[in-house]
Amino acid sequence: MDYEKVGSIFFNVIWGALRICSALIVVVLGFCWAVVVVMSKPWEPVEKVMVNPLVCGRMSGIVYEVPRRYVIYWPEYEGKSSWEVGFTKNAKGCDANFVSLFLAMSWPELTPVSFSDATSFNFSGVTVGVEPWGAGESGLRAVLRSYLRATPESIVAQAVYDNEIGMSYVEGVHRAFSDRKQDFFWLEEGGGMKYIVYCVSAYHADQSYCDLRYLLPGADVLVSIQFLRGRLSEWRNVVSKVDGFLSSSVKKDNLND
């Protein structure tokens, strides 16, 4: 038997075990010391982060301030898109520029509603989107052309005036599904495009809705309102009440600028 070799192996095993034990002792002592340091510090309550109950920002140079309870999605400000990392660091507040703002409210009270209500199939209120718009009336006309892109010009030329709705109307081709029909409405006044509407048919007729878009008077702001199809005949009242809500949301200090 090679006693020298056996002794060498035994020595290496014992030495390795001692090294491991010493390392564990150092780790344990370090942990205990850290616990002592932490426990020796006086307890400090965690400061609560208060969320501003108002959402504020500029659009077309006008400062809007609305109760946060109306905002169903996070307000988007200039800077990085909400799909980009770091968008939460965009400038916020009354001095920052909105890119988009989405609101939801009951009808006809225009009171705030919960996110779950606003996004349910049975929602009977209105959702309102506002965004800066530098393209003017010609841009709104271009949006209508985009709506009708799948509809042959010969059919668009046969549009009729719907007396009940008070707009021109055509049953066109659905923008995404060529085998389906879709209703489009628009209103021109004084040679300019004022309002455009498309309607979406749901499986249950009472859940069908319409999307109406127009430029906010006196501002380069595009407003989009979604409401049940059954209320299309009262769209002027819907627009009037939403305009009133947005007008009342102009920050008072802004009126003196």
Structure description:
The protein is an alpha+beta fold and 257 residues long. The chain has 2 domains: 1-44; 54-256, no CATH class. 28% of the residues lie in helices and 28% in strands. The chain has helices at residues 3-40, 115-118, 136-147, 153-156, 235-248, and strands at residues 54-59, 62-67, 76-77, 98-105, 126-132, 160-162, 167-173, 181-189, 192-200, 209-215, 221-228. The chain has a 9-stranded antiparallel beta sheet with strand order 3-4-5-11-10-9-8-7-6, with helices on both faces. A two-stranded antiparallel sheet has the order 1-2. β8 (181-189) and β9 (192-200) form a beta hairpin. The N and C termini lie far apart (100 Å).
Characteristics:
257 residues; alpha+beta; nine-stranded antiparallel β-sheet; disordered N terminus
Quick structural overview:
The chain has helices spanning 3-40, 115-118, 136-147, 153-156, 235-248; strands spanning 54-59, 62-67, 76-77, 98-105, 126-132, 160-162, 167-173, 181-189, 192-200, 209-215, 221-228. It is an alpha+beta fold.
Question: Topology, please?
Answer:
Blueprint (H helix, E strand, L loop, with lengths): L2 H38 L13 E6 L2 E6 L8 E2 L20 E8 L9 H4 L7 E7 L3 H12 L5 H4 L3 E3 L4 E7 L7 E9 L2 E9 L8 E7 L5 E8 L6 H14 L9
Antiparallel strand pairs: 1-2, 3-4, 4-5, 5-11, 6-7, 7-8, 8-9, 9-10, 10-11
